[in-house]
Design a protein that fits this description.
4 strands; alpha+beta; single chain; 131 residues
């Protein structure tokens, strides 16, 4: 289930989504790869620890170790509906939004497979810059 890519790649994926749930048609399931965390606090912690895209695996290990779970945060290819912004983290002058995502499918060796819908958390880099 884990496809490790840089936070920049994850942020680019999520930032390609035009806003939050208010701009996505009802029940429109999107697909893509990005950060998926069990809690908003874990997603916030990931952003705060991430120094560069080469540190994704190290950062995931640190967040998961703190959470006491091997898969509290992963980078995965999923089918999802983006939700509301629930937090904001400033990192190196950039504003990163933590958003809810409702996951409906997960990529496996046999392709995208449906799962019981569940809410998780991901990140979207804002176009705004912190001053």
């Amino acid at each position: 289930m884990r496809y490790l890519i840089g936070l920049v790649g994850a942020a680019l994926l999520w930032s390609s989504i035009p806003g939050t749930a208010s701009t996505v048609e009802q029940n429109q399931i999107l697909t893509g790869s990005g950060l998926v965390c069990d809690t908003k606090e874990q997603a916030e912690r990931f952003v705060s620890l991430m120094d560069n895209e080469d540190d994704v695996e190290k950062t995931l290990l640190a967040v998961n170790r703190e959470a006491g779970e091997d898969n509290a945060c992963v980078v995965a290819t999923i089918g999802f509906i983006p939700g509301e912004k629930v937090a904001e983290v400033t990192k190196d002058g950039a504003i990163v939004h933590v958003i809810e995502i409702k996951v409906f499918a997960v990529a496996t060796a046999m392709g995208l497979q449906p799962v019981e819908p569940k809410t998780y958390y991901s990140v979207v880099q804002s176009k705004e810059v912190s001053v």
